[in-house]
Amino acid sequence: MSVDQVRTEWALEFFRESLRTSRLPLIPGEVSAMFDDKPPVREIPTDPESLEYLRNLINYVLNGRTFIFTYNITLLIFLALFALFHLGEIVCERSKWRILEHDPAVASESCRKTANDSEAANEAASSSSSTLEGSLSSQIILKADTDVERLPLLGNRRHGKRTWGNRLTRNLASFLMYQPRPIPLINRTLPSNGTSLFISAFLGLNVFYHLYQLPFESRYFFAFADRAGVMFIVNLPLLYLLAAKNQPLKLLTGRSYEALNIYHRRVGELMCFEALVHLISMLWWRLVLSPDWLKGSNFYDYITHPLILLGLGAFASYELLYFTSLGSFRARWYELFLASHVVLQIAALVFLWLHFYTSKPFVLASLAIFFVDRLVWRLWMKSTNVTADLTVLEDGQTLLLSTDWDIPTTKGRRWLRPLRQSIRHGWHPADHVFISVPALGRSHLLQAHPFTIASAAPSVEPADSPTHAWLSLLIRVQSGFTSSLLDCARSNSRVAVRLDGPYGSRDPLNMLRSCDNAVLIAGGSGIAVVFPLAWDLVSNHCGKRKVHLLWVTHSRAQRSWIPEERIAELRKLGVRVTIPEPTIEAGRPDIHGYISDLAAAREGQVGFVVSGPDGLNRTARNACAEAVRSGANIQLRVEKFGW
């Protein structure tokens, strides 16, 4: 007999033996032990029709499980393709770096010329920096009720020769970059069209694996219900991999944790949906579609069986994980979200391990990812303790947490640098850290809250030269942890802090370095992302590019978040800094017009990095999409911040 025939005969025998008792065994090895002292409550079907039906049902279940385990292999193939594409991007970007930064003398001269031009432009601007330089000065202020997306962008201006192929390529790139309006009524923010299409393709792959070779007959509905459970299982490692702060996907794709987090949430939603389908389908099968001779005992005995109770425990744990992960819940009860995420994950994996024997390899892989990320990397290799200064800024609702230290040298131990990656060894622009403040109380001991590093990244090259690091975090006060930290800052100017990090991606910086023009747009505390990028571009990677920075503030008090002397230094280094009048006084600025004018006036490739609230991000993204449609050569990265 073949292996498949042996497996089918074993499963059939197991299924038949299961009919002799009102309680199904948890694993096949327990069959004989459980039947020795239990009287049969159901007759074993001996007619050929019933046996053939059982054989077919078991074959559908087992063949589906065999096929579905190729799912993760398929994901690895797609990941390899994305990694190759990202490698090609890296090679292309580095070739552009050499063109822009290859000659230090030329780069230095370019920096001096850019700085002189910028200083002259800044002197011509108003002392409050409330308007844009040059031809844009009359367009920056726009009333709050104006729909900027309906304004004309570039008119009939053309970029290069228009051909049918170029037009199609531009339209496709513009469509993928465009971000639709939020969903009405629930006001849920949607991602860009490109992200939505990628997520749709992922969901389509799951639908294919769920329905492949399933018999669409009600009497075999059990196979559909079982497949839903297996689809939940095979997605488990991917869910935990996307949730890990230290993951190979960032290196392989170049995307930051924040950019990958949207996929983590969609995978979690898909799994919760599959779990719900599995539960409802199993109940529907047991109550309605199952043959009478398979039902056996009453429904109470079925629902209180340990196998079913364990499944219900796993289902409840993951559904609670979903509801506590919703944006509205995180914003109101972030601390509860953190605690429940750890407890519910462990409980869910334990329930799943006991409920479904086949899930054990996937549960072990998920546990390994979870514990290696949390314990090995975050608590051991990336964690450090510092004493930090706390300063309440002008608006009274923003804190500045700052500290400094000497970066350890790694002379003769370069091979240790990839392993010892704590914040004490430096960080890159736009990185973030998790902070814990045990002094706030016992409940805060294990809490870790993320904040973007607002200060410039220290230079760590050459590795054998000592460098001093100055780290600053802008902390907007909300409820919970930040509110407690504000109370602490009012009575204590210094506090012991545990830093976990740094985390982030160099993709935005690398993209900007490869562009002829770099444009950074920040809204409010988004300045913590773009300021270090601008500083790094003109201090460490100065070349032929021009750098623009636009910072939209809500009130004048927010200007204190970045000291005036640092803004002045940026201008001296050549950055064209624009800070419009606060929106509370003058309304929203014309971000759309700002981007369109820059895209139309600049030659070569223009790189945009945007960080701010959803409204600003969407307006900037769609303005770039329109410019791309008109022929502009634009690269865009949106760094969203929030709870």
Describe what you observe in this structure.
The chain is an alpha/beta fold. It folds into four domains: 1-39, no CATH class; 45-76 and 197-379, no CATH class; 104-177 and 507-638, Nucleotide-binding domain of ferredoxin-NADP reductase (FNR) module (Rossmann fold); 384-502, Translation factors (Elongation Factor Tu (Ef-tu), domain 3). Helix content is 52%, strand content 12%. The protein has 24 helices and eleven strands. It has helices at residues 3-18, 31-35, 48-68, 71-101, 104-124, 164-177, 193-211, 221-234, 236-243, 248-253, 257-289, 292-295, 299-303, 306-324, 327-332, 334-355, 360-381, 481-491, 507-513, 527-539, 564-572, 583-586, 591-601, 614-629, and strands at residues 383-392, 398-407, 432-436, 449-452, 467-476, 494-503, 517-523, 546-552, 576-578, 606-611, 634-638. The protein has a six-stranded antiparallel sheet. Strands 9-8-7-10-11 form a five-stranded parallel sheet, sandwiched between helices. Strand 7 (517-523), helix 20 (527-539) and strand 8 (546-552) form a beta-alpha-beta unit. Helix 8 (221-234) packs antiparallel against helix 11, helix 11 (257-289) packs antiparallel against helix 14 and helix 14 runs antiparallel to helix 16 (334-355). The longest helix is centred in the middle third of the chain and has 33 residues, at 257-289.
SSE diagram, text form:
Layout: H1 3-18, H2 31-35, H3 48-68, H4 71-101, H5 104-124, H6 164-177, H7 193-211, H8 221-234, H9 236-243, H10 248-253, H11 257-289, H12 292-295, H13 299-303, H14 306-324, H15 327-332, H16 334-355, H17 360-381, E1 383-392, E2 398-407, E3 432-436, E4 449-452, E5 467-476, H18 481-491, E6 494-503, H19 507-513, E7 517-523, H20 527-539, E8 546-552, H21 564-572, E9 576-578, H22 583-586, H23 591-601, E10 606-611, H24 614-629, E11 634-638
Parallel strand pairs: 7-8, 7-10, 8-9, 10-11
Antiparallel strand pairs: 1-2, 1-6, 2-5, 3-4, 3-6
Helix pairs in contact: 1-3, 3-8, 6-24, 7-8, 8-11, 9-11, 9-17, 11-14, 14-16, 16-17, 23-24
